[in-house]
Amino acid sequence: MNLKGRNKVSAEMNMSSMTDMVFLLLIFFMVSSSVISNGIKIELPKSNAQTLSKSNVAVGISEDLKYFINGTEVDYSTLNVALESAIKEAKNSDSEAILILEADKNVPTGKTVEILDFAYKKEIKVVLATEPE
Fold first, then answer.
1. Where in the sequence is the domain holding 61, given as residue range(s)?
2. Secondary structure (H, E, C), the chain
């Protein structure tokens, strides 16, 4: 008589389904990481009728540190007063007025930060003007 049991438990594991899952996860993370690294969208200002209708304040700083507000040269000692009146005038005509900062590439960062800080205190949005390549 054969008393051995016919139901033996196999010590082997079938790994094919687990490797399929690992490869699917690997592909998922590779695709999602490429989307995340390029996921930040930056909208640059566009020239259309909507932006042209807004009241803007243009502040220019030349390489030799001459200041201009809406094309008119302003002395540095009276810059804050002239800039404040230009901002008030622009905000009276449009509550969402924008300050456009046109600074030369050789202007020290501290000078541009002064204008940015002043605009922040006056609660006006600032756009840094750049030249397309």
1. 49-128
2. CCCCCCCCCCCCCCCHHHHHHHHHHHHHHHHHHHHHHCCCCCCCCCCCHHHHCCCEEEEEECCCCCEEECCEEECHHHHHHHHHHHHHHHHHHCCCCEEEEEECCCCCHHHHHHHHHHHHHCCCEEEECCCCC
